[in-house]
Every structure is written in structure tokens, then in C-alpha cells.
Design a protein that fits this description.
By secondary structure, this protein is of the alpha/beta class. Helix content is 22%, strand content 25%.
Length: 286
């Protein structure tokens, strides 16, 4: 399994075309089979921004076999109230993907991508529905999987936030509720514009899970330690040896370089190895 995780490109006035072009080059060179996009392809959900985002995705599709994508809160109208109330996802579905929720079954991974955007409530925090819980539980059920197959959840809003961002408190729901108790190995999110990689353990079951938040991959909206920076994650391996490598854009080289790398054994909940530059909070949360 080898996939690239990107997020928050924000096509529009804050999109950085130089970074976006370099990101396409990185996707081509990575030779990943799957690209996962966790929302906010646009800044203000206008038709012109969706057209630009769609053209970029068409170019990215030339380098991967599969694209799994979900909407972000910026992918619906903010000020066009009539559209936001009565047809909030029409442009997204016209230009990005007709399905707001997706299930992808690969030979070594199952990915469930969910729409966490609610146009009329919890726009910033996000929310999921019971229907989505049932979809996830069925996708991760044993009849569709085996012990070695990775189970990945993807949505725009984070389950929890690791740095204090009062306006981004995260989804108010546990992973057990989302998956109906079925195993979840990795959760991919965006929204915060600040990259994080954390190993968590469920207090009840002791099951390990890696939470991965992608920074903004091609916009000028980085926050926190990622202010002024752009990143993506390259994720590969299996449940026994999962490698998460975070790549940051180097403006002098005009290319993305790997900065942080972590190896996880999700079967034994241990770290086989970690690079020196891996986010320090990994050790605190293990």
C-alpha cells in the first residue's frame, strides 16, 4: 500500500501555483497508487475555483490509479445563502466528485471517505451522521477484510485537535461510534493547516490508531508551526510496518523534501523506528 495524502489546496486568491505545480511533480515521482484528498479544494466555492481545482485533479489523475476525496467547509458557499441552504454541494458534485461519501476497497487497504461538512450547523467543527456510521461499519466489517488489511478513515474535520485552536475544536464523536466498533488503523484529516502525526490508544480496547492531519498542501494559509509552509504525507506499508513521511515545500529548491518520518507497528502498538526529526508529540502520545 502506497498513498499520498494532501489537503486544503484552496484554489482561489490564496492558492500558490508554484507549490501546486511542484505538488503534481511530487505525486508523479512518488509512484503511489492512491491519492487521498481531505477537503477544501477551493477557497470560496465559486464556479471558476472549482473549474481550476478540477483541472488540477485531472492532471493528478494521470499519475495515480485512484483518487479518494471528500468536501471541506470551504467547498460550499459561505455568503451565497440561497445556494448554501438549498443546494450547497452542487458545484462540488459537478466538478470534483458526484459522491460526497466514498468507499474504496483495494487489495491491501479499505478507505472510507466521509463528508463532515454541515452547511447549516457546525460548519467549522464538522459533524457526521448515523447513516455514515453504518456505511463505515459495513465497509470495515470482517466480511470485507482480513487481519492484514489496513482500515483508513478520511474526512476534512479532525477528530480531536492537539494544539490549542479554539475555533477548531474537532468532531464531537468517538472513532468507535463512527466505525461501529470495527477496527480503524489510520484517520486522515485536514482543516487545521498544521500537520500532525500521533499514535493513540483506545482506553477501552487498547487498540492503536494513527491520527494524521495534513497541513495545507498548496495555499498561503499555513497556521501554527506550519505558518508559511506547505506539506503532504506519503503513507506506505502495512499494519506491521506503516511508514508516514511528511514532506514540506522548500522554496529555495522549489520542490518538496521529506522532513519527518515515523514507523508504526499497529499489530503490536509499537514503534519499530523513528527518524530524529519526527514530531516530538509522537513519543508523548504513545
Amino acid at each position: 500500500m502506497r498513498l499520498i495524502h494532501i489537503s486544503d489546496l484552496h484554489f482561489g486568491p490564496l492558492y500558490d501555483s508554484e507549490v501546486g505545480e511542484s505538488l503534481l511533480t511530487s505525486i508523479q515521482e512518488a509512484a503511489a497508487t492512491t491519492l487521498v484528498v481531505t477537503g477544501d479544494m477551493t477557497q470560496r466555492a465559486t464556479r471558476s475555483q472549482f473549474i481550476a481545482a478540477s483541472e488540477w485533479l485531472k492532471r493528478a489523475r494521470q499519475h495515480v490509479e485512484n483518487i479518494v476525496i471528500c468536501p471541506g467547509n470551504h467547498d460550499i458557499a459561505l455568503y451565497r445563502i440561497w445556494e448554501r441552504v438549498f443546494n450547497p454541494f452542487q458545484l462540488y458534485q459537478d466538478y470534483i466528485h458526484p459522491d460526497l461519501d466514498q468507499v474504496f476497497h483495494g487489495t491491501d487497504v479499505t478507505i472510507v471517505s466521509l463528508n463532515s461538512v454541515r452547511p447549516l450547523s457546525r460548519l467549522v467543527q464538522g459533524k457526521l451522521s448515523r447513516k455514515q456510521f453504518l456505511l463505515t461499519a459495513n465497509a470495515f466489517a470482517k466480511k470485507h477484510s482480513d487481519e492484514n488489511k489496513l482500515h483508513i478513515l478520511a474526512f476534512h474535520h479532525p477528530l480531536i485537535t492537539f494544539q490549542k485552536q479554539d475555533h477548531h475544536p474537532g468532531l464531537d464523536v468517538s472513532w468507535q461510534t463512527i466505525s461501529g466498533g470495527e477496527r480503524v488503523d489510520v484517520v486522515l484529516t485536514g482543516h487545521l493547516h498544521d500537520s500532525e502525526v500521533h499514535l493513540r490508544h483506545d482506553e477501552g480496547t487498547g487498540k492503536p490508531m494513527v491520527l494524521i492531519s495534513c497541513g495545507t498542501s498548496a495555499s498561503k494559509r499555513g497556521r501554527g508551526k506550519d505558518e508559511g509552509r506547505n506539506s503532504y504525507n506519503l503513507i506506505e506499508g502495512n499494519r506491521s510496518d506503516l511508514v508516514v513521511a511528511t514532506h514540506y515545500y522548500d522554496r529555495e529548491k522549489k520542490s518538496f523534501d521529506m522532513m519527518d518520518e515515523a514507523h508504526f507497528d499497529l499489530k503490536t502498538a509499537s514503534f519499530p523506528s523513528r527518524s530524529q526529526s519526527t514530531v516530538a508529540s509522537l513519543a508523548r502520545d504513545a
